[in-house]
Specification:
Layout (H helix, E strand, L loop, with lengths): L1 H17 L3 H12 L4 H7 L9 H37 L18 H15 L3 E2 L5 E3 H4 L24 E3 L4 H10 L4 E10 L11 E11 L4 H16 L5 E8 L2 E10 L16 E10 L1 H7 L7 E8 H8 L13 H4 L3
Parallel strand pairs: 1-4
Antiparallel strand pairs: 2-3, 4-5, 5-9, 6-7, 7-8, 8-9
Keywords: Aminoacyl-tRNA synthetase, ATP-binding, Cytoplasm, Ligase, Magnesium, Metal-binding, Nucleotide-binding, Protein biosynthesis
Pfam family, one: Phe_tRNA-synt_N
Cofactor: Mg(2+)
Length: 339
């Protein structure tokens, strides 16, 4: 038994001293000190040792285990130190090098303009409401006083999913949906993406954005419309901005008008921006048509209201003096970082 323990000790020490990795060192530990290791097998044979010899043999076994464990621990420390030294040499970091720059995104000009418009109208007590981009023909046309034979419903102007479903051509359907709820009064704006079958050029795109606004309450007049939009223009383009309303026709408003603002570049004197006219058209507006009230179930004898529609891209192009709408959709970081 003593000779067997001596052989195990010498064998274990030899293997430990020849090991060059922590993985192999662990294998040596398991092969000698594990549950099925050589030293454990010797302990199982203690039952065959004479009772008077067991204390002496047990002491030798413990000494052998302690010797092996001590050498294992020292070898583990040495190997760990060597591996750490190799790692430090292979993973050298030059702390004097400049740090890597994070590529942080930038708000799109449309987003900047939309946030500004939202800020102005929310400050006036308006609510921001959204609706579906794939819309029923009824909400997109009929409920807005645009009958079946109206030119706007031509397939050359509108993307049809089927005869009853379209990609919305305006965000006015959101206004109709709010009117049908019957929760009056209403003060809302409806920003969102719209679609029309336009060819892509410097001023047109088949996909663009609109902001439609609506107010319905008792005693609302055209004077309220003019005062609201004049204040909006001053907030957006500067306190010296003046507005001008020109008669126009929209199926869902009567009377209707288009609103111009004094050129914020030349102050109304005439320049390249305003094509020498001193005025720039920015939106359409009008008093809500009685038939629109009727179709939405609102008492037109009690309530009146106004509505307006703004092209978000037009606001962005004018405000930031961008001369080509296509630049807004090319995702060129060099362009976007200017705003």
């Amino acid at each position: 038994m003593k000779e067997r323990l001596h052989e195990i000790r010498e064998k274990a020490l030899a293997q430990i001293n020849s090991t060059d990795s922590l993985e192999k060192l662990n294998e040596v530990r398991v092969s000698f000190l594990g549950k099925k290791g050589e030293l454990t097998e010797v302990l199982k044979g203690m039952k065959d040792v004479a009772p008077q010899d067991r204390p002496a043999v047990g002491q030798i076994v413990n000494e052998t285990r302690q010797a092996i464990e001590e050498v294992l621990e020292n070898a583990k420390k040495e190997l760990s130190a060597k591996m750490r030294e190799v790692q430090l040499k292979s993973e050298v970091i030059d702390v004097t090098l400049p740090a890597k720059k994070n590529n942080v995104g930038h708000r799109h000009p449309n987003t900047v303009a939309l946030d500004e418009v939202k800020r102005i109208f929310v400050g006036m007590g308006y609510e921001v409401v959204e609706g579906p981009e794939v819309e029923y023909d009824y909400y997109n046309f009929e409920a807005l006083n645009i009958p079946a034979n109206h030119p706007a419903k031509d397939e050359q102007d509108t993307f049809y999913i089927n005869d009853k479903v379209v990609l919305r051509t305006q965000t006015s359907p959101v206004q109709v949906r709010e009117m049908e709820k019957g929760k009056l009064p209403i003060r809302m704006i409806a920003p969102g993406r719209v679609f029309r079958a336009d060819e892509v050029d410097a001023t047109h795109s088949p996909c663009f954005h609109q902001i439609e606004g609506m107010v319905i309450d008792e005693g609302i007049t055209f004077a309220d419309l003019k005062g609201t939009l004049a204040e909006f223009a001053r907030e957006l383009f500067g306190p010296e901005t003046k507005v001008k309303f020109r008669p126009h026709h929209f199926p869902f408003t009567e009377p209707s008008a288009e609103m111009d603002v004094t050129c914020f570049k030349c102050g109304g004197k005439g320049c390249r921006m305003c094509k020498g006219e001193g005025w720039i058209e920015i939106l359409g507006c009008g008093m809500i048509h009685p038939h629109v009230f009727e179709m939405s179930g609102i008492d037109q004898n009690k309530y009146t209201g106004f509505a307006f529609g703004i092209g978000l891209e037009r606001i962005a192009l004018l405000k930031y003096e961008i001369d080509d709408m296509r630049l807004l959709y090319e995702n060129d970081v060099r362009f976007l970082k200017q705003f």
